[in-house]
């Protein structure tokens, strides 16, 4: 495997580079440097260059995904029975746990990601904010709303996320009205 990495050095980011990325913005910059789409973000590609494996598998409806250490690799699992746009948010949320919370080798199994009673300081809320920043960067979100369209469906298509994710993002950035 080492031979393959030498032949194609940009395929996977070095461990040092991975651990120097602590924010959604840094990960978006990393994706762009590797030729990945940033809007909508190629979240699968980003996870792969971080040397994390993705497992799409059927889970019970209440479960969205997980971040686990398996056979010497980090693995992000996602419930493939959920809508593809919801799966993208799950992937970004688990990536948030990886960047923000896994440093002591911790693992996460996630149920429904949006809950009304979420403590705003909790790791779950942090991972949701991280996912929103990754998939709907604030500057691009504001540019699109003011310059292109403020309709939820248009915004959701632009970022390839769910209408629910758009509504929560809009509310958190202080937008209201227009069906948001
Ligand atoms: Zn979580």
From TrEMBL:
Source domain of life: Bacteria
UniProt-listed Pfam families: Peptidase_M78
InterPro entries: IrrE_HExxH (IPR010359), Rad_response_metalloprotease (IPR052345)
Domain IrrE N-terminal-like: 50-170
Protein's recorded name: ImmA/IrrE family metallo-endopeptidase
